[in-house]
Amino acid sequence: MADRDEQLPDFAALLRELLGPDAQLPPEMEQFLAAMQGDAEASPQAALLQQQLGMLFGDGGESARLAGATDLARKVVAAAGERSVTEGARRDVQSAVDVARLWIDPVTSFDSPGGLARAWSRAEWVEATMPSWVELLEPVASGVASAGSAAMGKQLDALGASGELPDLAALGLPEELTARIGAQGMSMEGLLRQFTPVLERVSAGLFTAQIGHAVGALAADVVSGTEVGLPVVPDHSVTLLPAAIDEFAGGLGLEVAEVRLYLAVREAARVRLFTQVPWLAANLEAGVRDYGRNITIDTDAIESAVSSVDFADAEAMQDAFAQAQLFGRAPTPAQQAALTRLETTLALVEGWVDLITDQAVTAHLPHAAALGEAVRRRRLGGPAQKAFSGFVGLQLSPRRLRDARNLWAALEAAGGVDLRDGSWAHPDLAPSTVDLDDPLGYVDRRRAPAAPDAMDAEIDSLLASFGDEPPSAPSA
Known about the structure:
The chain is mostly helical. Among the domains are: 1-81 and 121-224 and 298-331, no CATH class; 408-465, no CATH class. The protein is 67% helix and 1% strand. The chain contains 20 helices and 2 strands. The protein has a two-stranded parallel sheet. Helix 9 packs across helix 10.
């Protein structure tokens, strides 16, 4: 039998630590915990389950979260099937990216950042992007841990008056365990206080498990490095995933070479934008951070999910990890404001990429229009939608993406490429949520500088009265 995952703790020892060194666990629980410590190579599902449990009860530091989430995501990819990238595929990607950069040059004022052209397997995408995911979502993970601690504090406050244990057997605990807890004379408050540190780790660990599971699932779906709409790929490289592109092209009934070229243009345009507009990454991170700072835990939903899971069913537990609804049913006002800013920025990015791609490929690819429509349909349930819906509860609006594309097109029609791309120069200059609702008003303001108001005129008049000499100091 293979050794168990080294990241997986000894659950029996952990439970004894909580209940006291002399505690004797019931045989049924001993058997269950032994199964959890069993052979991870027995099946991909067993390996996934052990990895998820290890994150729940293991070290909660950022480095541990990165390692655990990466390992889990790789196991998700392996369970779904993976193939390596051939040298021929790497050459095809290099050629497509070289052509894409040439086609983009005439339609934007942004210079090409250079960088490598990469062909990655799904596992390579996981390895390369996971540090960015963990860093981006660290505020959300911290918010989950804090919210879990706060939720436990409320439970303790509620129990402070009576301090009596509920019917533990009714909660599903084995009779032998409930008898031993009662024999130790432990109050519910005392029991919960012993569990609180572990539950805080569980809150953060559950979210880390969701990151690993979600990024692994995304890896099975993305066709390029930054298709999710975030700068998660390091070093400005333009990255394509040949296996995913082959599947996408097969579903469309088009030649792989044409589809690869189209997707290379989209990816190269997005990478160029992220590179030439450095504030974009910080803006997106701020939106996620502001959302995470105000997280609340939906304890009712978690209780409902846990009560419906058969812990002897590995697949049911995996589904619980993947679909767990950690967050409150409705965002707070502060969270909603953060989500609105996120949606606007993401829409502006994808709207610009849509416009640039259409302009770059129309004269070169016979099925350019069909490919553009296919990408728009794919976006409805694609990687970006899955990522933001799962991590921060954001549903990207197709209408907002169309609004953003139309705004960039209107800017170009009014003042050319320089006016359009110049609107990315500073976050205060870029279109806002209100501007997406009134694109023509935004275009008018960008095309003509704002007229000075009365205060500006008064200041100009005062300065003019001094002439070239500075005003003299008042006499004593």
